[in-house]
Sequence to fold (293 residues):
Amino acid sequence: MLWALVAFAMVASSPGPGAATPATPARVHSSQLTSQPTPKPVSAARVSTSEDAAAERELLELANRDRRESGAPPLRVDESLTAAARAHAQLMVANAQLEHQFSGEPSLRQRIAHVSALRLDRAGENIAYDSSPAGAEQAFMHSPPHRRNLLDRGFNVAGIAAIRSHGRLYVVQDFGHEISTHTVAQTRELVSHAVNDVRRQAGLIALSQYAPPKLDDAVCSMAQQGLPNARLLQTAYDNRRIITYTQSRPEILPQGALNLLHDRAVRQFAVGSCYARNTTYPSGTYWVAILLY
Fold:
């Protein structure tokens, strides 16, 4: 029996958080269906199982073979993602059932963020049980949602768990898209180039850059409150037009910023940024504020 969750995105290119869109699980190989017990929130640490490192290596080799044949780049294994996948596989074994989220268990994004420092803007998961790695891979490739996850060119990192229990090989594949890591200064430079590119393309003069005090700190405070809301900055930076947004690629400006940057009366700008995690963005995202003068 096989279940799938189509990859979800957490990328916001406009003010406010992006949307997570989970897909409806898809069941295949109906001839293998058996009655299952009701899932129970069992701690993985209390389950006696046998992790199969050789099967995990084979599953990675098979996945990268299929990705290579489809023109997708290979996946890099990350130990923190593997730890997240193994913890979930232990729960599937404990409950003798395939589920993407058991009662009391965090969501995929949250459980990855709990054990991983990776900066991810997308994640996806495949789960299955079969008698062998090759059988699980074949089942994934014959199920459209699993195949989409497996061959997704946007995923560049993965964690794969394989655990044997009572004649079954339980498999969890956790995929992610790791984004570039920028310092505050690098983020400011990326956004600044984007701002003046907009001005140049519109035939307008370049803006001079200003550095108001503690703007980065103010953006981090805004991130802690969980909303890229310009009003949160108005008290400290009044009489300014303020643009705020979240993005995994901070150089991508929201449409609202483009409209304001076309104003011929604008002469100066300032950029503040902060990379932060919260419940909406468990793996983090870039929070950006642009002040126009």
Remarks:
- Confidence is low (pLDDT under 50) at residues 1-48.
- The chain has nine helices and ten strands.
- The radius of gyration is 23 Å.
- The first strand starts at residue 2 and ends at 9.
